[in-house]
Request: fold
Amino acid sequence: MDTLLQQLINGITLGAVYALVALGYTMVYGIIGLINFAHGEVVMIGTMVAFTVIVSLAGSAMAPLMILGIGVAVSVVVCMVLGWALERVAYRPLRHAPRLTPLITAIGMSIVLQNVAMIIWGRNYITFPPMIGKHIYEFGGASFTNVQIAIVTLAALMMLGLIYLVHRTRIGMAMRATAQNQHVAALMGVDIDRVIAMAFIIGSALGAVAGCMVGSYYEIAHYQMGFMLGLKAFTAAVLGGIGNLAGAMAGGLLLGVIEALGAGYIGDLTGDFLGSHYQDIFAFIVLIIVLMFRPSGLFGERTGDRA
Amino acid sequence: MKGQFRRSVAGQRPWLGVLLLTAVLLLVPFVAGLGGQAWVRIANFAILYVFLALGLNIVVGYAGLLDLGYVAFYAVGAYTYALLASPHFGIHLPFWVILPLGAGLACMFGVLLGAPTLKLRGDYLAIVTLGFGEIVRIFMNNLNAPVNITNGAQGITLIDPIRIGDFSFSQSGTIFGITLSGPQKYYFLLVVLALLVIVVNVRLQNSRIGRSWQAIREDEVAAKACGINTRNIKLLAFAMGASFGGIAGGVFAAMQGFVSPESFSLMESITILSMVVLGGMGHIPGVILGAVLLTGLPEVLRYGIEPLQRAVFGRMIVDPESLRMLVFGLALVLVMRFRPAGLWPSSQRLRELAETAD
Reply:
């Protein structure tokens, strides 16, 4: 019972982060149908920028929470600019190219960003300075920290904000219209270029926050961290039905919980034949099983015939 | 009609091209050998990647199924060879037993992956194949306990080279009065294999099966309505692409004498896919060009960047390894920006693109 509760708590924390990153994938995919492979790298850059800002401010007289806030804010701004630049420089010229072309561009961009990060921040793990004094709470035999609470709360707030933005504001309406049919939306006076740029910018902002969360949760960062994180988040987006915001959130949480439970129980289930280092395969096995029965994800609508 | 048209164009100068190509293919290992055996090995890898890229081209280029886990089949072939021809289990089977076995196993894995994913389209398929590739890699990384099967992250060493009687491909020897080094021997073996897969690709392209694949790629529903058994034909694409991957894996294991899960990462799948797309999806010469370029470019950069930095700045400013990958990534982005259909797309594909552009 303790394990169950503990793994659920860890899973929800991890899942909240996956969900935030997954939203970045799903927004871009919903509007232009592109798997933005470079999104994981944007998240990584977000972590790295926050790290640099926090370390350089750490000696000053400011309150730790203030420093953390500034770090997150700077990283959000940097990532927004990065997301916008990615769209403008790499993807916009390819909007009418064959379908796999922007995918290769995204892969190329991901390699570029990774190596730029390596040149700037080096190839070693860097320690993320803990800015929130850690408190550990006990609850029913399981423990959780205030960092975890902060992550889950912040993620929930941001998701609510995004839902409000998409469903209640003008730009949100334009986004939904563009996602349904670009040409018609353009005829109705929607500025398609602006909407697509916005999707990238918002996605990158969410990604930057997620990056800061990962940094403060695990307290380490690495130039390759974006890759696996991006992969998991993308899996989460597909699990929920790519292009669907609620799906990405649910998929992220589900994936986090499955992974945590899987890692906690696999040893018992298989008589210690398989250990917790198989954690990473759960995400994919669940994905394959779900897609076998629901080919367009848990909440996805039937996708078009694009192959 | 189109196929006949193309054949008649090619028919105007058939022998000159073949002769020239043969001469170049024969000379490559000796010219590369002048710069050291390392360059011959690079040439070998270029051909191995041609092989892999053409295998993937069947799945992605012909049938239009985006496969991001292709390297799993390559890994299956490599590990089959490694386990059955190394001191790890003390089994030393000859290569003509193992290579078909590896191809068969990979084929089985292909069907295993293909069967549950038949209903999936486009990007859903991409992520499932990607997940499959990761699952295979994670198992290879961890199947060393409690029973040691793959020897985990250390990999398997001392794999037997390909041997025919007393003729071993790993040692240098003299044939017909010409002394060949180990890598040079492998070069010729690889060329023969690559020619084989090219022939298969060409023959498939305009066959009934090949046209069925292209029909599925363009419109699956219409293809089904035309009486194509889309399920079997799609499975066949997976199986065939996987078999080529399996054979390539076996040759890779024999050539390297060492396999470890590190060689079969997602990045490898992505690189092979980049070769196919960058060269010109579905177009055999384009795919070959893509494979050769993307194998050669990082190597040229590896040897070129350090002297270049020293010449320009007088010292090393940036770590050459990361700069190399940076240039590689930029090259991908730039090629796609200015040649969206690939470096050498088929004329048919270009025409289609011109028609659909608005």
About this structure: DSSP finds 14 helices and six strands in chain B. The two ends of chain B are 27 Å apart (CA to CA). The CA atoms of residues 7 and 208 of chain B lie 17 Å apart. The first helix of chain B runs from residue 2 to 10.
